[in-house]
Sequence to fold (130 residues):
Amino acid sequence: MFDNNVFLKDSCANVTENGTVTGFELETNITYYRGIPLSMMEYVHVTVDGEMIPDDSISVSLDRIDYFTLKEAETVTSYKWEYGEPLIVRVAKDGGLAPGTHQIKLTVAVRTAYIPVPLEGTKERTVEIA
Fold:
């Protein structure tokens, strides 16, 4: 139902810090029609070329300033993820994605106060890294 909100087109790119490629990131919108505290994210899963990325390699940010591991995000109530505001999903991976074509799947699920199951969306895209 929310698959079209997940993994925004043309948002996947390698991340360079101090001249070194330290990983890659992509963006997603929320799988709900309202905003939620970041702590109400149920899970974020990233798969690259059929290989699932470990949770401890993933962090998220709403402002590209403060990044939280998925474990830290469980307690973050002061940041609200609003509808239409992209969440940045960063994957720590030495060297990032190699140049060429990659198949990337992103799955995002959130909890809400009155729906008893997480609202999940999945989107898979073919991306080209220069």
